[in-house]
Design the sequence.
């Protein structure tokens, strides 16, 4: 089972998830890393769950079209949409606001511990 290390607001949280589990779905049913992962739609439309991958990126699939649309150049900075990932290996993530760009992508995340919508399965 993958070990997930999650950094947010200067704190570090760790836990195991089932192989292939979606972290946004886990947050929605109040399992790790609930309530620390900020998310909203769960479908790759809002970029609220964007996180910087600190370790384990080599084990992730290439970004899909939703990530390319929402993150644009932030992909080159190591950001991914957590709602579009199903980790098979250990992963270390940090949720920080996306740096501002002129590309019109989302530039902020919800405050820690908030989830305004039930994520899709």
Sequence:
């Amino acid at each position: 089972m993958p070990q997930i290390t999650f950094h947010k607001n200067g704190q570090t949280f760790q836990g195991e998830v089932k192989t292939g589990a979606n972290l946004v779905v886990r947050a929605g049913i109040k399992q790790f890393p609930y309530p620390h992962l900020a998310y909203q739609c769960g479908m790759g439309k809002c970029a609220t769950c964007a996180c910087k991958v600190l370790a384990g990126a080599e084990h992730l699939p290439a970004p899909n079209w939703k990530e390319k649309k929402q993150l644009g150049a932030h992909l080159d900075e190591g950001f991914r949409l957590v709602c579009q990932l199903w980790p098979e290996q250990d992963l270390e993530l940090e949720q920080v606001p996306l740096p501002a760009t002129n590309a019109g992508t989302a530039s902020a995340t919800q405050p820690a511990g908030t989830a305004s919508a039930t994520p899709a399965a």
In short: The radius of gyration is 13 Å. Residues 102-121 have pLDDT under 50 and may be disordered. The CA atoms of residues 99 and 115 lie 21 Å apart.
